[in-house]
Write a structure and sequence with these properties.
It is found in: Cytoplasm. The chain folds into 2 domains: 274 residues, 4-Layer Sandwich (Metallo-beta-lactamase, Chain A); 162 residues, 3-Layer(aba) Sandwich (Rossmann fold). Helix content is 30%, strand content 22%. It is built from 14 helices and 19 strands. It has a 6-stranded mixed β-sheet with strand order 7-8-9-10-11-18, with helices on one face. The structure holds zinc ion (ZN).
């Protein structure tokens, strides 16, 4: 059976991930993501109303025109998890394919939100839920399996396409977490089985975001302990404490809520995306928040919540807000500019349970937000966080477990591939032979 892989997006940047695998006459698409930084750099761009081709020209969504060169029918579109760089282009591209969207239940819920917010295209692909540990027959003699992985969002999976020529393992995004906070540990046993059974692994597409980092990515439970320690150290502070983190990081939000209670404060989630992600996770039973947890997204209800906090006393609350990257329109930035009823005073604490995404726009915005907070006397607690991506030892362990014939590094800029190349070559792979450094829009023929 002919096997071909089209590396469509996310091979020259972190963002707008999209890959297609053709096995015989059948094609499966993995991820359809957005490169948010290409959108944010323009002021006031409303992507909801924009046409796909304009977004492709901006570099915001994958250029899927290479799909016309693949001789096969698309059988499924498979987003791996709910981050925007993996699902954010579904509302712009999926309607061009007569295929269902197959994903884990939480990811499907977030995909639904994307489709509902779309104003230009009607996307009516069937939405099919499949959880980690499950599989389905697909196309002609193929099987699609989801392996449960751990990442900075719940319900992440790595899809595996089983073909007569071996398995194609699509490895974006994950860290090897054996002590996660809200869900099961990563299913390493299944990866080891896949590496040994049948024809073995024909190709492994890898998330190389952190390939330059030595050692092992710590578990989410480490971030949780760090967070607990930081908040306990503020136990006797009688002023304002504000925290911010990734809205989609339900495990982290849940730890913040829990430790706020422990130090005698009422947690409250503020900001549109806070309400969106945490609301979905709670509705679907992934997290059990306290009954009295307030979640407010709309500007007016947020401002009402802030007024209530100022009236009843800042020492009784712990607002968890959007704005960990200093995004100009996010809640924390508005607070820093004095645009909300919440008044920061000298000595108030601001907890960043996040790291700055190393991208010039983020770095600049975050610098500005921190300066503004500092001018009001806020004390900054930074980087109470662990990454959602593998470091070098995780990459090594995955190569050991899967023993793939071909390796295709992804989720990286061109200059960022060198550390992964060094690691893979020390394991016997060779660039140009079985280690494929590629670009967006290329096709790699693995079996002719
Ligand atoms: Zn991700």
């Amino acid at each position: 059976m002919e096997i071909e892989i089209a590396t469509i997006g996310g091979y020259e940047e972190v963002g707008r991930q999209m890959t297609a695998v053709r096995a015989g006459d059948d094609v499966v698409i993995f991820d359809m993501g957005l490169n948010l930084s290409k959108v944010l750099i323009h002021d006031n761009v409303e992507t909801e109303r924009m046409h796909s081709l304009d977004l492709i020209d901006m570099g915001a969504i994958p250029d899927d025109r290479v799909m016309s060169e693949l001789e096969g029918d698309v059988k499924a579109i498979v987003p791996t998890h709910g981050h925007l760089d993996h699902i954010g282009a579904i509302s712009k591209l999926a309607h061009r394919y007569d295929a269902p969207i197959v994903a884990s239940p939480f990811t499907i819920e977030l995909v639904k939100g994307q489709i509902e917010g779309e104003e230009k295209f009607g996307v009516d692909n069937e939405l099919v839920k499949m959880s980690g540990g499950e599989s389905m027959e697909i196309g002609n003699g193929l099987e699609l399996e989801f392996v449960h992985v751990t990442h900075s969002i719940i319900d992440a999976i790595n899809p595996v396409l089983h073909t007569p020529e071996g398995a194609i393992v699509y490895g974006l995004d994950k860290r090897l977490d054996h002590n996660p906070v809200l869900e099961d540990p990563i299913d390493m046993q299944r990866f080891r089985e896949i590496g040994r059974e049948g024809e073995g692994v024909l190709a492994y597409i890898e998330d190389t975001t952190n390939a330059q980092k030595k050692g092992r990515t710590p578990s989410e439970s480490v971030a949780r302990t760090h967070l607990k320690d930081a908040l306990q150290s503020m136990e006797d502070y009688d002023g304002g404490i504000v925290a911010t983190t990734f809205s989609s990081h339900i495990s982290r939000v849940s730890s913040l809520v829990e430790f706020a209670k422990e130090i005698g404060r009422q947690p409250i989630l503020l900001g549109r995306s806070m309400e969106h992600y945490s609301g979905a996770a709670e509705r679907m039973g992934y997290v059990d928040f306290p009954d009295d947890l307030g979640m407010f997204g709309h500007r007016k209800s947020v401002d009402r919540a802030f007024k209530r906090i100022m009236n009843e006393g800042k020492d009784r609350f712990l607002p968890v807000v959007t704005g960990h990257q200093g995004e100009p329109r996010a809640m924390l930035t508005r607070m820093a500019r004095g645009e909300t009823p919440y008044e920061l005073e000298s000595g108030d604490k601001v907890v960043f349970s996040a790291r700055v995404i190393p991208e010039p726009t983020n770095v600049g915005q975050r610098y500005q937000a921190e300066k503004l907070l500092g001018m009001q006397g806020a004390r900054i607690y930074d980087e109470i966080h662990v990454s959602g991506h593998l470091n070098q030892e995780g990459h090594y362990q995955m190569l050991q477990a899967l023993n793939p014939k071909h390796v295709i590094p992804a989720h990286q800029e061109m200059e960022g591939y060198a550390p992964y190349v060094n690691l893979a070559e020390s394991e016997g792979y060779k660039v140009g032979r079985d280690l494929h450094i590629t670009r967006n829009g290329n096709r790699i023929q693995l079996v002719e």
